[in-house]
Amino acid sequence: MKLKQNSGWISLALFLLLSLPFVIAAVVVQTNWIVDGKAVSGTSLTTEVGKTVSFGVFVNTNGNEEPWLEVLMENTATKKVSEPSIKVKSGPINQDTYTFIVDYTPKEAGTFKLVTIAHTATDESSDELTLAVKSKPQPQPAEVLGCTDKTATNYNPEATKDDGSCTYPPQPCADGDKDGICDKDDTCPKDKYNDKDKDGVCGDVDKCPENKGVEEKDGCVNNVPTLIFDPAPALKGAYGIYVYYLTPGQNPTIKLTGKDLDGDKLKITLATDGV
Q: HSE (CB half, 13 Å, CA atoms) of 14?
């Protein structure tokens, strides 16, 4: 891309010719930064490592032969001067005017003085720009979800964002019956067997902790009421069977005394041998 001829520099050259008749400015150089394909005003530019910048060098030789361009970079902190690797496009605008378009890719961070020097066989002239180069931004690491609480059992030291998954060891709690269940969650906090007979009565108050549904009033025994037989049976057989030897028409009297404390409802069945 060619830069347009700068009329200010031409005016300056004319001024020098008129005011200094015995001194002829052979070579005139002007350097501008180029942004988005256009020359911009100002001598300073900021970029980053690895990002290519461009600048244009306008050279008026005032009738001298075609110039050649030299570019130097000076680190303002270390004062180290180097010749950067550049790409140059050039071409005459007219017989005396040349434009150099230079691309440069910085490889290190720092502030640099960029010096452009146009040479001819009999003269040379220079101009300066300032380039501030920042370090290339480091890529942000990928976000890692996990538990970031060091007191949790599943703490993830590589997690960068907490995802609410933290778990914690069980906290000590009151356990009066030592059954491994906290009293606040234990239906029978004083019964380590937790209602063994499953009758809804905790063992610490259940007088019959192994007999489901049995009333406690009789000490967990299926009480049989006292039976009084009149007349007395001839014998008592197995399984509580009382046997009478009666003649036809003879009826025994059976009296029951006591209470059915456990509610098992004693049942008496009379039967004959069919005689």
A: 6
